[in-house]
Automatic annotation (TrEMBL):
Keywords: Repeat
Source species, domain of life: Eukaryota
Any single Pfam family the record assigns to this protein: PPR
Family to which this protein belongs: Belongs to the PPR family. P subfamily.
Signal peptide residue numbers: none
Protein name as it appears in the record: Pentatricopeptide repeat-containing protein
InterPro entries associated with the record: PPR5-like, PPR_rpt, TPR-like_helical_dom_sf
PPR repeat positions: 10-44, 45-79, 140-174
Length: 199
């Protein structure tokens, strides 16, 4: 790192600079700094690559983000849950749903439902939830709660109510206290508190 001969930058220093350049969409400076890092005695860590991918992803620079992921793997570093969340969120915002689902296959249905919710892609999360309903896998309350939460997040209390009513009557999913809290949250936001009095 030029101009820093009298001090030894740590990986934290590199991480801060790399993220700043990526946020500024300055790919040339990022590449130069990565080259400098390769030639130094400092070893990049998972935070180095997650920070870069997050910055590129938020800027919609998918190609650059994927290049960083490849570099991370070349260092024998394994993606963690933060890496997966960054990839899913970035692909979702760019409507690259096939890639999003490929990444999510390493995680859970709940994560994918939430990511579709953040993308305001209600129809896609409903298709995914129906797939869960039709499968013979064990039905988890966390999956139901994820669905209710995204309905609430997108201002769809009626849809949340209809889903819960069908699940409750069919007894197809387990229900816990969080389920009722999410319903009450949806009803309160829509000034439909009277519906919550039924439970």
């Amino acid at each position: 790192m030029k101009g820093m001969e009298r001090c030894s930058p740590s990986i934290v220093t590199y991480n801060i600079l790399l993220r700043a350049f990526a946020q500024a969409k300055n790919v040339e400076q990022v590449d130069a700094l990565l080259k400098d890092l390769d030639e130094s005695i400092v070893t990049p860590d998972i935070f180095t690559f997650n920070g870069l991918m997050d910055a590129y992803g938020k800027n919609g620079m998918i190609k650059e983000m994927e290049h960083v992921l490849s570099r991370m793997k070349s260092y024998q570093l394994k993606p963690d849950i933060i890496t997966f969340n960054i990839l899913i969120d970035s692909y979702g915002k760019k409507q690259e749903f096939q890639k999003m689902e490929q990444v999510a296959s390493y995680i859970t249905y709940e994560c994918l439902i939430v990511m579709y919710g953040h993308c305001d892609c209600v129809s896609k999360q409903e298709i995914l939830f129906d797939r869960v309903m039709e499968s013979e896998k064990e039905k988890k309350v966390s999956t139901l709660n994820s669905m209710l939460d995204t309905y609430c997040m997108n201002g769809l209390p009626v849809e949340a109510h209809v889903l819960f009513e069908s699940i409750h009557s069919a007894k197809s999913f387990p229900i816990d206290s969080s389920t009722y809290k999410l319903l009450y949250k949806a009803y309160t936001k829509a000034d439909m508190k009277e519906l919550g009095q039924n439970y």
